[in-house]
Design goal:
alpha+beta; single chain; 2 strands
Length: 103
């Protein structure tokens, strides 16, 4: 029985060894396909944030001192007040001063 079994194993090995086939050669690649269509345009980006507030400006320089104005013209001397009733004007010949004296 051992011999029969060995004969079966050897005959199976010979049959399988004789049935080996070679794999077919790989197929050649075909020509390249046509180019694809152009993609759609992308969406617009979001609006940017507002800029920062600017710095405060410098203080201006002090202005020049103005020119002093001209002195006004001196007014005319007013007339002397009239003398009270019962008096008249009299000029002192020594001083030139005018004063009222009794009539």
């Amino acid at each position: 029985m051992k011999v029969a079994m060995a004969v079966v194993v050897v005959s199976l090995a010979l049959m399988l060894g004789a049935c080996t086939t070679t794999a077919p050669a790989p197929a050649q690649p075909g020509p390249a396909g046509p180019a694809g269509q152009q993609g759609q345009a992308g969406q617009s980006g979001q609006q940017g944030d507002a800029g920062q507030t600017g710095q405060q400006g410098n203080t201006g320089a002090q202005g020049n001192t103005g020119v002093q104005g001209n002195t006004g013209v001196q007014g005319q001397q007013g007339q002397s007040a009239p003398c009270p009733a019962g008096q008249h004007r009299s000029t002192n010949p020594n001083t030139g001063a005018v004063h009222c004296v009794e009539n």
